[in-house]
Structures are given as C-alpha cells and as structure tokens.
Amino acid sequence: MEEQVQVTSTPRIGDKAPEFKAKTTQGPINYPSDYRGSWTILFSHPADFTPVCTTEFMTFATQEEKFNKANCKLVGLSVDGLYSHIAWLRRIQETMEFKGMKDVEVKFPLIEDITMDVAKKYGMIQPNEDTTKAVRAVFFVDPEGVIRAIIYYPLSLGRNFDELYRALIAMQTADAFDCATPADWRPGDDVIVPPAGSCGTAADRMEGKEEGVECVDWFFCTKKVSEETVLKTVLK
User: pTM, whole model, 2 decimals?
Assistant: First the structure.
C-alpha cells in the first residue's frame, strides 16, 4: 500500500493572514495583530545551524533597517525550539563571516514552532520536499493583515533579498499611485496605469490628451513617477 502524504493547506493571496500566538527570541507575539499598521515579511527556514539559513539570516539582519524604513517588519520561523534559536543566533554573531558581514546581531523575532502548528497553518511544511522541515516560504502581509504576495523556495536555494525588497516597494507603489509595475520595475521606472474605463477615455489616451500618460496601444499605457516621489511616499 502506498504511503498517504498529508497535504497541508496554504493561505492564498488576498486572504487574511492566519492568526497565531507564539514564543519568539524577542518575546511573545500575537500575529498579525501586533503588526497592524505595518507591512510584515513572515518567512520560514528549514533549520537552525544550517549553512544556507545562516547566510539568509545574516543578510536579513544586515538589511533590517532598510526594510523597517519601508514600514516593514521581519518575522522569522522554523520548527526548532527557542533555546536552539538563541544558541544559533549567538553563534552567528560570535563566529560567522559571509560576504564581508560579521558580528551580525539578529534583532527581529524568530518564532519557536516545535509543534509545527504555525508552519502547517501557513503551508510551510510541504511533504514532497520534507515532512519535518519548513520550506523557505515568504509571506508579504500588508498593514491590514492581508496576504499580498507569497514566494516559495526549496531547501537548497537561498533567497534573493534584493528581489524581496523590490517586490515590497513595488506593491507599496502600486497601492500609493493606483498603478501596476512592469517586469523588472525599480523606483524611477515608468509605471503602468489601469486600462481606460470608457472608449472616450481610451481614445483620449491614444491621442495624448491625458496629461502624463503615454500609450503604446489602448491596453498598454504608462506614466512617469520619479524615484524621488516613490521613495518619499513609501519610506518612513
């Protein structure tokens, strides 16, 4: 008889982030209630005292201030216990060096999840990858507690932190300016404006009558939003 693999449910984009209370390296948290009004990145890693995870935590810790300035808090999780977390983070600060980073102190909370309750609630345990470790999941949760983006990586692949920051700023820009962002968008690049609501408006756009909007075709129009304007809007 074939072994039945338990499939865990996964919250989807647009869902309210599942609520939970947990112990962390920075004290107890009630998520996402404690972070209302801020964006959060809730991310999981497979295990403490592993090399890929170590490079990720050093990178996140080094970039934490940059994320905080974008009104975004970092929250980590693995299915290890609190004392393992504390010992690992201490080892990172005392002995680890990677790409010029050393003496790195991890100040954001790292959740204890020995029971895997939180990991299962967020679909971080994916049996075809591993039944006892969380994959590298990333949940972007907005100030209203709504999941806005989800990215998964296998255990062997370290995350691209430039992309995580780019995605955060792009979503904030889309919210602030009622727009979308094209492939490889970065602050200062043109943004995409929503499709015209009527034939008359579409014609006006195509004829260049809508100020600041340029159209390649009726369904593809862009406008300029300067890098300065974007950063002034989204950074605190």
Answer: 0.91
